[in-house]
Specification:
Elements: E1 17-22, E2 34-39, E3 44-49, H1 57-68, E4 74-81, H2 87-105, E5 112-119, H3 126-138, H4 145-151, E6 160-168, E7 171-180, E8 193-198, E9 201-202, H5 204-216, E10 233-238, E11 245-246, H6 252-274, E12 282-290, H7 293-304, H8 307-314, H9 320-328, E13 341-344, E14 347-351, E15 354-355, H10 361-368, E16 372-378, E17 384-391, H11 395-402
Parallel strand pairs: 4-5, 8-10, 9-11, 12-16
Antiparallel strand pairs: 1-2, 2-4, 3-10, 6-7, 7-8, 12-17, 13-14, 13-16, 14-15
Length: 406
């Protein structure tokens, strides 16, 4: 079930990156479950990762490898098995997978970055990965973006991709991105993997700053169910194959690249929400007139994480009392209810501490029956605004997660 139509875009070729996906038998029924990215020798790579204390073995190893080399050459991703909460055995399995790629490609182990997604607590079938690597490697090509997007899926119903292209001084700057994510979605980060690449030449430190900022404005602004995964990784790759060189935040080229990257990140983040497990509503929660960013986000997430609000959304029930209750317990200090205004799309439902005089139940019902809703809260405390994206909570969500391992 998806909210709106998800269409995988036509991805332009980005020089300096090749991809492939195969079935290694990690998932059942021969589904694609192993993906490989091959990067040019001049590529730079940066990433942000989960903050879950039960950080998966591949995440730990990936961060370790990034610290040891600025010249990553391969990204190996498996789906169907998270290799999380697997102890020393899991770390060894991740390392063996990297070593197999390194030996086959004549690079160092540290130049291979591992990623996993799927069921937590199960041993990674590393022997299946090793057996599939020759086929995976031999099929690398520059136009397998859609295939790679399918290979990283778990409970996703469709592959997810976004792309932006622009001309800079007669050169084409392209930004392609794929992602997976559908449930266990919550900031810091969501249960997701994302891989975004550009052909620009970008200094690694600058690339790291950009990936963090872009993630904060996208993947760290979505929530489905309030759960934070063990495996989240978001990687930004600059292949360094174009004549566009970016080495300063002040350069016009950086400003153009930043906008393109954020556009791709936000598109992917919103696609993840639209494909949320069992979702029937795509909801933008906009909190305005805040005193600072943190209090705006506190209010937004209190609403988005309320089971009562989410089930009312599923039922198309204009029970606005649940919304104001969530605002009230959000934890913002000195929040004055008489200054707050609450809107469903353009319908004012709450002001001056109570129901708006102009509000009619049929107007609220009309908005709540839509598949896309904007819930706007004006705090009356300042001029800061934040937006997050979320979904309703349906019977199907429970079914999907109850049957996930069967």
């Amino acid at each position: 079930m998806t909210v709106g139509t998800l269409v995988f875009p036509d991805m332009p070729v980005i020089d300096g990156i090749k991809l492939n996906a195969v079935s290694a038998g990690i998932k059942k029924q021969g589904k694609l479950d192993l993906v490989l990215f091959e990067l040019s020798q001049n590529a730079t790579v940066a990433g942000v990762f989960t903050k879950n204390a039960y950080c998966a073995a591949p995440v730990t190893l990936c961060k370790n490898h990034l610290e040891k080399t600025s010249n990553s050459r391969y990204l190996l991703i498996n789906s169907g098995n998270a290799n999380a909460c697997t102890g020393e055995q899991g770390m060894e399995a991740a390392l063996i997978s990297c070593a197999a790629i390194a030996e086959n490609s004549n690079v160092s182990v540290e130049q291979v970055l591992p990623f996993s997604t799927g069921v937590i607590g199960e041993p990674l079938p590393v022997e299946k990965i090793e057996e599939a690597l020759p086929t995976l490697h031999s099929g690398l090509t520059d136009d397998h973006w859609s295939l790679a997007a399918k290979g990283i899926m778990t409970t996703d119903t469709q592959p997810k991709g976004a792309t932006v292209s622009l001309d800079i001084d007669g050169e084409r700057l392209a930004v392609n991105g794929i992602a997976k994510g559908s449930g266990m979605i919550n900031p810091n980060m969501a249960t997701m993997l994302a891989y975004v690449a550009t052909n620009a030449v970008v200094d690694q430190a600058l690339l790291q700053k950009l990936v963090k900022e872009a993630a904060d404005l996208s993947f760290n602004r979505i929530t489905i169910d309030g759960d934070t995964s063990t495996n989240d990784s978001c990687m930004l790759i600059a292949t360094g194959t174009s004549a566009i060189t970016i080495d300063s935040e002040e350069s016009p080229n950086y400003i153009n690249l930043k906008k393109a990257v954020i556009d791709v990140f936000q598109s992917l983040a919103q696609i993840i929400v639209r494909d949320g497990e069992g979702a029937t509503k795509f909801v933008s929660i906009v909190v305005e007139e805040g005193g600072n960013n943190d209090e705006c986000l506190q209010v937004a997430y209190a609403i988005a994480h309320s089971p009562l609000v989410k089930t009312a959304l599923f039922a198309s029930d204009a029970n606005w009392g649940r919304i104001v209750a969530a605002i009230g317990y959000s934890g913002v200090d000195d929040l004055h209810s008489d200054k707050i205004r609450v809107y469903l799309d353009d319908v004012l439902i709450v002001e001056n501490g109570g129901r708006a005089i102009t509000y009619r139940e049929e107007d609220g019902q009309r908005i709540m029956s839509q598949s896309e809703i904007t819930l706007r809260v004006c705090l009356g405390r300042g001029d800061i605004a934040e937006t997050i994206w979320t979904t309703d909570l349906s019977h199907e969500y429970i079914k999907i997660n109850a049957e996930y391992r069967t």
